[in-house]
Design a protein that fits this description.
With 254 residues, the chain is of the alpha/beta class. The protein has helices at 5-17, 38-51, 101-114, 126-136, 160-168, 185-194, 218-231, 239-246, and strands at 22-25, 27-28, 34-35, 55-58, 81-85, 89-90, 96-97, 117-122, 144-150, 174-180, 198-199, 208-210, 213-214. The structure holds magnesium ion (MG).
Length: 254
């Protein structure tokens, strides 16, 4: 796994060369464990933005021992995009992943203030309603980007019929992606391409290229998804085209 900021930047550049338009980033400790480190986020964002025109998408996920308030700090870096967790759930045996109504409202307000586009992480179909209620309160601007997080323990399973239902429940002016954590990632990539969504791939979700074979890089996974999209008649957007589709106002050139 790319763990240091320098390794993560190199991995993003490689994925960009293979057709990625958005780089979703977390920070990791020396042993690959997930940690929160604002300085590392700063280095990752600067490194990617200085060498590519990728849209940088930073996580607002919670990793102990950070506080809930520290989850707002990455917004101060003003990434073009950040993940927005759309409700609470039991994350396997790890405990309650808390995203209370008050927390979500504050996150929405802060994203508006810092001009950060939310990517709504939907762990279960009922959470779509949590977002539409905030849309009704004027806290989000269209177009909306939803990400169906399917497969983690405690989240909805990576299942085609469930994905079909979730897509039908989206509000107007929505774009969507689907994650199949683990062995369903490729299946969810293919369904996203076929059904008008956008594929997401990479080591956060799955480290295997195929059964029994570890992927060599994020770029290897991205290259396969690009081939799939082209074979299925879905052209791959450049970062500039992706910005237009997502209503992002930033102008960037590589
Ligand atoms: Mg993430």
């Amino acid at each position: 796994l790319p763990c240091t900021p320098a390794e993560i930047v190199v991995s993003a550049i490689e994925a960009w060369h293979e057709g990625a338009s958005i780089a979703h980033c977390h920070t990791r400790g020396a042993n690959g464990e997930r940690i929160y480190d604002k300085t590392m986020f700063t280095e990752i964002k600067a490194g990617i933005e200085s060498q590519t025109d990728l849209i940088v998408n930073l996580t607002t996920s919670y990793y102990p021992p950070m506080t809930q308030d520290q989850r707002f700090e990455v917004l101060e870096l003003q990434p073009e995009m950040a993940s927005f967790n759309s409700g609470s759930l039991n994350f396997g045996d790890l405990g309650i992943y808390e995203n209370s109504p008050a927390f979500m409202k504050k996150m929405a307000e802060q994203m508006l203030e810092y001009n950060v586009r939310p990517e709504f992480e939907i762990f279960d179909v009922g959470q779509i309603g949590n977002i539409t209620r905030l849309i009704e309160q004027g806290l989000f601007k269209p177009p909306y980007l939803f990400q169906f997080v399917m497969g983690p323990k405690g989240a909805m399973p990576a299942d085609a019929e469930l994905l079909s239902l979730a897509v039908r429940m989206l509000p107007p002016q929505s774009q969507w992606l689907a994650i199949g954590v683990g062995r369903k990632q490729l299946e969810m990539n293919a369904l996203s391409i076929l059904w008008g969504g956008h594929p997401r791939t990479g080591f956060e979700d799955n480290v295997f290229y195929q059964k029994g074979e570890i992927a060599t890089s994020n770029a290897q996974l991205v290259a396969r998804v690009k081939r799939l999209a082209l074979e299925l008649g879905r052209p791959v957007a450049t970062p500039t085209q992706a910005r237009a589709m997502l209503g992002l106002t930033t102008q960037k050139t590589a």
